Amino acid sequence: MHNLFLVSSPLQLLCAIEAKAHFKTKNNILVIVYYSGDTQSSIEHTEKVAALSEWDEVIRLNSASKQSKYKEYLALLKYLKQFEYDYIFAGHLGNIQKTVVASMKKEAFFIIDDGMVTLNLHKFAFNPNNKPKRTLKQKLKELRFTLLGYKTQMRDTINYFTYFDLQPYADEQIVKNRFEYLLSTHLGDLAQDDTVYFIGQSLLADNLLDKETFIAYMQKVIDSYHGKKIVFIPHRREKAPKELEALVGDNFRIEYFHGPVEIEFVLQKILPMHIASFCSSGLMTLKKIFPDAQYDAFVLEQEDLNKRKEGIKNAYRVLSEEGFSLITLKG
User: Fold this and answer.
1) Non-local CB neighbours of 174 within 8 Å, separated by 6+ positions
2) Is 205 left (phi over 0), alpha (psi -120 to 50) or beta?
3) Sign of the four-CA dihedral 198, 185, 15, 159
4) Residue 302: burial class (beta carbons within 10 Å; 0-12, 13-18, 19+)
5) What is the Cα 296 distance to its own chain's centre?
6) How many CB atoms are located within 10 Å of the residue 136 CB?
7) Got the DSSP string for 56-72?
8) On the CB side of 34, how many CA atoms lie within 13 Å of its CA?
9) Given this model, what pLDDT does residue 236 score?
10) Residue 123 gets which letter from DSSP?
């Protein structure tokens, strides 16, 4: 029997490594699915995490292929179909992931964490009381696989390997991810650091905030710490604008991490004691790994957002429920 891990982001991959250790799986196949929107930095982050653990086989989709994705997906399905699986794990559930999960023989399927996406999957997509309807576009995409004998509709029990406190529906298994592998293998010799590490988000790349509004928020964040040293860590999809670089001084600097923050702190031997952000899901991950640190979540006001207002509101609701301190900068 084999075990299959389908990932498409550094956080999913980190959680896949934890799942591999927790379930003590063998004959592990890792499939990394890259997408056209992935930046070189994002790909480098993912590959850096992949190198932290040994896999029996690693398959990369869309990494440098010039053939059609559909042909590549069909080749993957044909290859994977020759095995049977104890477990299949996946974070993102696009068409190819759903088709793989639905078409393979397995004992159990688990969703692994991908930040707030996991909460939405549990609350909406796989809530038995709230089954979303498939669009015509989705049905047409699925038809390409069903005509060749593959299944696209998952009939399995949806289980979760997660650091969130989820309440199970019916027969769901909720297995807690406590990052035990990372904690046991890498956290023994870290040096305590009282710097405020501010975790950036893709607010400008996704046009959630105008640049001027973003800079105004960051100036207020810096002022709120009254001279305490702050390190701003840009999101892997963003480069800090020159207006933010102009704020660099004795107590504020910008540092680009070459991997996910969870991993970079460990590799740099840093034990952070103060972590802040607006509403990055990284706050929740880091709190599980560094529970003794202070965490601040600065509120982005609804009237300042260009879009995704409901999603941002929901993010702050979750952070509040998880016990994070929400700090308002208005006034």
Assistant:
1) 159, 160, 162, 166, 167, 168
2) alpha
3) negative
4) exposed
5) 20
6) 7
7) SEEEEESSS--S-HHHH
8) 18
9) 87
10) I
Whole-angstrom Cα distance, residue 79 to residue 87? 17
Between CA 6 and CA 16, with CA 11 as vertex, the angle to 5 degrees is 45
Please give the structure tokens belonging to residue 199.
Answer: 């975790």
Q: What is the pLDDT of residue 132?
A: 74
Contact 32, 7 (CB under 8 A): yes
The residue written with tokens 């550094």 in the block is 10
Residues whose CB is less than 8 angstroms from the CB of residue 38 and which lie 6 or more positions away in sequence, other chains included = none
Report how far residue 309's alpha carbon sits from residue 42's, in angstroms, rounded to the nearest whole number.
Answer: 25
173's tokens: 């298994």
Q: Which of 99, 77, 7, 84 is nearest to 47 (CA)?
A: 7
CA 222 to chain centroid, in Å, comes to 27
Give the pLDDT confidence score for residue 63 in this predicted structure: 62
**What does the chain come to in residues?**
331
| pLDDT tens readout for residues 140-159 | 888 999 999 999 999 999 99
230-269 burial, b at 16+ Cβ within 10 Å, e below that, comes to bbbbbbbbbebeeebeebeeeebebeebebbbbbbbbeee
In degrees and rounded to multiples of 5, residue 167 shows phi and psi of -95, 125
Structure confidence at residue 110 (pLDDT):
98
Give pLDDT < 50 ranges for the chain.
none
- Count CB-CB contacts under 10 A for residue 305: 19
The DSSP element (H or E) to which 106 belongs, if any, is strand 106-112
Sign of CA dihedral 129, 130, 136, 142: negative
Q: Are 152 and 95 spatial neighbours (Cβ–Cβ below 8 Å)?
A: yes
User: Other CB atoms closer than 10 Å to residue 77's CB: what's the count?
Assistant: 18
For residue 178, the 8-state DSSP code is: -
pTM over 0.70: yes
